[in-house]
Design goal:
196 residues
Length: 196
């Protein structure tokens, strides 16, 4: 079951009238007119609710002359129920949060600015990978543009620039910087800030 299917199911079943329709159809098949009368609803309203339930595959329709009989598909409801209570199915709906995403969440504020440069080399490596994504690989950047880009994320652009160079994520020559391919990057354990 996809996240969209699950949301559609809960949205559909969160409506009191639809829940009552499911309950009535669980007893026996019924027409729109009969459901409308029993629930004190207008027929177009009942038809709308039935359409939502049909889209979920919970209701079937059987034509009989000019009448259309609606019934609950008990097998579909049982299948849906099994999937909803399966820990594996429910757990699969939430992507596992990576350690890197938790590090980013801990060091970035609501505006996407770096609160502080991490002291831990491993965490700093995650931040540097995030920062280097601000630059295109196939472009050369003057130092002023590098500073402006980094300052949108943290005030200390000089330290961040040195860290990116030290990690071999960026290179510089004559005041011009460029992003290096991932294959050139050093391991976080080997990174040291470049001497000024």
């Amino acid at each position: 079951m996809s996240e969209a299917e699950l949301l559609a199911f809960f949205k559909a079943m969160a409506n009191e009238s639809r829940l009552r329709i499911v309950g009535l159809l669980a007893q026996r098949e019924r027409t729109v007119q009969e459901l409308a009368e029993t629930l004190s609803l207008k027929e177009p309203t009942v038809s709308h609710h039935l359409a939502v339930l049909k889209d979920l595959g919970l209701v079937t329709v059987r034509p009989d002359g000019v009448m259309r009989w609606h019934a609950l598909d008990a097998q579909a409801l049982a299948t849906m129920n099994r999937r909803l209570v399966s820990p594996e199915e429910v757990a699969a709906l939430v992507p596992e949060e990576s350690w890197e995403s938790r590090v980013l969440a801990g060091f970035l504020d609501a505006e996407g600015r770096l609160k502080v440069v991490p002291a831990s080399r491993r965490k700093r490596w995650v931040i540097l990978q995030w920062l280097v994504e601000q630059f295109d690989e196939d472009r050369r950047y003057p130092e002023a543009e590098v500073n402006a880009t980094l300052q949108r994320r943290h005030w200390d652009s000089a330290t961040l620039r040195r860290e990116l160079i030290g990690a071999a994520m960026m290179a510089r020559e004559g005041g011009v910087y460029w992003r290096l391919p991932r294959s050139a990057w050093r391991s976080y354990a080997d990174t040291r800030p470049e001497p000024s």
